[in-house]
Structure formats: C-alpha cells, structure tokens
Amino acid sequence: MRHIVFTRRAFNAIVTETLDKHPLETGGIFIGYVLDNGIWIVVETIPPGIDTVNRSAYFEYDAEFINYLSNVVAKQYKGNLQLLGLWHRHPGSMDVFSPTDDGTNLLFARPNSWGAISGLVNCDPRMRLTMYHVDAQCNYTKTEWSIDDGIVPEELLELRFTSAAELPIPEAELRDAAATLSAGQPDDGAAQAFTINDAVTEFGQICKKLMKSKL
Ligand SMILES: [Zn+2]
Questions:
Q1: Whether the Cβ atoms of residue 27 and residue 18 lie closer than 8 Å to each other
Q2: What is the pTM assigned to this prediction?
Q3: Burial letters 24-58, b for 16+ CB under 10 A, else e
Q4: How far is the CA of 166 from the centre of ligand 1 (A)?
Q5: Cis omega (within 30 of 0) for bond into 168
Q6: What spacing in Å lies between the alpha carbon of 178 and ligand 1's midpoint?
Q7: Residues bordering ligand 1, an ion, CB closer than 5 Å
Q8: Residues 158-171: pLDDT tens digits?
C-alpha cells in the first residue's frame, strides 16, 4: 500500500510557501526516500527559487536555484536523499493536472522504476493538498498522506555532522568519497548502488530539461 509521509519541516514548507505567494501559483520540490514497503518519506521540500514566474494560473520554477539548494540540503543528511517529485498550487478547485503538468511530472517519473509523486494545493478557501503517484506512462493514482508523528525511522533523518568531536578531515573525506566511487556496485543490488552523486547528476539533467521547457 503506497503512502506518503511528510516530515513536519517538509509539510510546513508547502503551507508557508503557499501563504507567501497567495493568491498566485507557486510550488516546490520534494526530496527524501522511497522505502521497499511503498512508503514515500518527504524529508525536505525545496522552495521554488528566486527567479520564478508566479501568475494566477501559471508558474515556473527557478531550476538553477533548485538544483543548487537540493544538492546543498541533500549533502547534509547521512542517507541518500533522492528526488521524489514536486508540488504546485492550482487556481480555484482544480485538483487535476494540466497537459503542461503531465510533461513536468513525466520528467520526474521516467528516470526511476518507482515513478514520482506530485502534489496539488488548492485554497477553496481552506488550503488542501492532494497527492498523486505518477508512473512512467503518466498514470496518476491519488495517494493518502500524513505528517510524521514519530513513525519515520530516526536514522533516515540523521544529519551527517552532529558533534564537535567528529569534525572531519577534508582530505580524508575526499579520499573516502573517491574510494566509494571506484569500488563499484555493492553486492546487494540497485537500491544501494544509487548514491547522492547519482541523484545529483540525475537532478541536474531534470533541471536542464525544465529550463529547456521554459524557453
Ligand atoms: Zn498545474
């Protein structure tokens, strides 16, 4: 059974960004984990950026900003945060996707066998969030969501550096990273082989496509 869990922080970022730009459209990017049991954990919601276009029925992300900030944030976590999908505000009560949205959702859904998640926020007049799963064929499945009340395993939210006694030696960190990369694929398959570096590369490619579709 598929289910989406937002950390409180990730949830707040959606609400505050919507309030901030109301009544115009806005949105953001989800990064986190897809677990084997079908649970999607949105650890952070990345804001849409500075150089955005916000209109009442139209919205463009600042792809360069998102690429930059996603990588900055992802590097602060111990786990391999992945790009999960995106959300955006819609005018009125329109809680289904437009043909333009289909194209954007596919950019996120196609690179991964597990697809992507995409959310729509409406204010009619109370704010509400409708979450969908989207597969590589652009099939949408409405998906239940909740806010983390302690069910997300703590280790998934662990930050990389938390103690003054364990401050890193930059030269050694770089050596370790290089060693991990040259060691190749781990024994137990594709899920573990996906590293932050892969996510960063993949995200860079999606951002380039987003920018192209802007032109
Ligand atoms: Zn839309």
A1: no
A2: 0.84
A3: bbbbbbbbbbbbeeeebbbbbbbbbbeebebeeee
A4: 45
A5: no
A6: 41
A7: 98, 101
A8: 999 999 998 999 99
